[in-house]
Amino acid sequence: MIRFLIPFVAVVLFLLEPEFALFSPISWGEQTLVLVPRFVILYLIFISIYYSRKRACLYGLIFGLLYDVFYIDIIGLYSFLYPLLCFVAGSTVKFIHQHLSVTTILSVVLVAIMEVFLYYFFHFIQFTTIPVSDFLSNRLLPTIIANLLFLIMLGWAFKYLINARLLQRARDNS
Amino acid sequence: MPHFTNKKLILLLVGTIFLVALISFSLRDRQNASVPEQFIKDTVGFAQSIVAKPANYITGIFNDINSLLNTYEENKRLKMRLEDFAVLQAEVNTLQSENKSLKELVEKEDSLKDFDPLKATVIARNPDQWEEKIILNKGSSHGVQLNMAVMTANGLIGKISLVTPFTSEVELLYSNNPNYRVSAIVQGEKSDVFGLIEGYDTERNELILKRIDSSFKVNKGEQVVTSGLGGIYPKGILIGEVTEVTTDDYGLTKMAYVKPAASFSMLEDVIIALRTSISVDGSDGSGTNADLTNGTENETTDTNEGEE
C-alpha cells in the first residue's frame, strides 16, 4: 500500500496547487500579494533527500511535464527545473545533516532560487514587466512565507510517510 | 577521467540545445494544442474537475460566512436602492417593448448585443501566476471557440485563449500581452466615446483605456462597456468604471484608468458568451507576445489588425 502512497500524495498535491492558487492574489492594504503554491516540488525535494534521488528526478520530470502542458504551454520549463532541483537537493545529502528543520529550510531556499530564475525567464520573454523590487516584496516574500508554513504543517507527515516506505522496503529485502 | 568529463560536457551541451529548442518551439504557437497535448490537458482537466468540486464547496462556505457577517449593512444599503429599482424596472420594461416594436418596424433582426450564455466552472488557476490564466470545464465539444468573451455576473473578465475538446483556457484582462485589446465604449452623459482597453497597470491594479479622441470629454465615474465592434465580443458587457483621465504619452489622444467591475480572485462560475450575430475572425498575433504594432504604437491607422 505504502508503495503507491508516495506517488499518490504527489498527484494529490499536484491537483491541489491550482485550487490554492484561486485564493491569490491577496490585497494587503495598498499591496497585492501573490502567493504561489509549490507543494509538489517541496514534496519531491523531501523524497530526494530522504528516499531516493533517482526516483525524485523521475517524478520531477513527469510532474514538470504535466505542469508545462496543462498550465504554462511552454514545454521544457518546469520539466527541466523540477528534476534539476531534485538532483541538487539529493546531492546535498552528503554534506548536510538531514534534520527535519534543516531540510525544510533547504527546500524553501531551493524554491526561492527557482522563483528568481522563473522571474528572469518570464522577464526575458516579456510575459511580465514588474521591476525586481516589486517581485521581491510582493511575490517572492509571500511565496516563501506561505510555502514555509505549508512545510512546517506537513513536513513531518512527508518524512513519516517516506520513513514508513523505507522501513517496508528494508523488511521486504530481509 | 578527462575523457569521461568530456562526454558529460557534450551531453550537457546537447541537452541545453534541445531544451532551448523545445522551449522556443512551444513558445511559437501557443493557441493551438497538438493531439498529445490535448489528451494530457483533457485527462488532467478531468481529474482537476473532480478535485475542484469539494474545493469550490469549501470556498463557498467561506464566502457565505463572509457575506453573513456583512448582512446588516448590506441589507440597509439594498433597501435604499430597492425604491429606485422599482421605478427603473418599469422604465426598462417600457423601453424593452418599445425597442422590440421599433426593431420589428425596421426589420432589424440580429444585434451585436445578442449572445447565448454558456455556463462554465473554473477548475483551476495557473498556479505560478506569471500569466493570468484560468482553466474552465467546457471545451470545443460544448461549442466553445477561440477568442470568445468570458464574464462573471459583474462584468467582463477575459477571453478564451486555448481550446481542447473538454477544457478551455481563459486569458484574463490582467494581461501583459501587448496584443490583447478590447474595443470599448465609455457611456458618457451626452454621447458614447470609443476607446481600446490596452494593457494593465500593475501598480494601480487598473486597466488602461487608450486611444480616446481628445475632443471628447470623459469623466471620472463613467461606465465602460464593450462596443462589440472588435468583431468577437458581444456589445454591452460591463468592463468597469473610469477612475482617472489623463493624456497619453504623446499627447495626441486621451487615456483613462478603468477599475474592473468583476473581481478576479476567487473566480468560481463564469459565463462564456457565444455571440449570435456573425463574428469576424480577429487575429491576435496568434497568442504570442510578438509586437504586431511595428513600432507604430500611437498611430491609429494600421493597428486594426490586432483588435480584440
TrEMBL record, chain A:
The UniProt keywords, alphabetically, are:
Cell membrane, Cell shape, Membrane, Transmembrane, Transmembrane helix
Membrane topology, from the record = Multi-pass membrane protein
Q: Where does it live in the cell?
A: Cell membrane
- Entry's Gene Ontology cellular component terms: plasma membrane
Q: Which GO terms describe its biological process?
A: regulation of cell shape
* Superkingdom, natural source: Bacteria
TM region positions: 33-51, 56-74, 104-122, 142-162
Q: Which family does it belong to?
A: Belongs to the MreD family.
State the protein's name.
Rod shape-determining protein MreD
Native species of this protein?
Ureibacillus sinduriensis BLB-1 = JCM 15800
UniProtKB/TrEMBL annotation, chain B:
**Domain Rod shape-determining protein MreC beta-barrel core as annotated: residue spans:** 122-272
Which Pfam family, just one, is annotated for this protein? MreC
In this chain, the stretch annotated as Disordered covers 283-308
**Keywords linked to the UniProt accession:** Cell shape, Coiled coil
Family as reported in the entry's similarity comment: Belongs to the MreC family.
Q: What does this protein do?
A: Involved in formation and maintenance of cell shape.
Q: What is this protein called?
A: Cell shape-determining protein MreC
Organism, by scientific name, is: Ureibacillus sinduriensis BLB-1 = JCM 15800
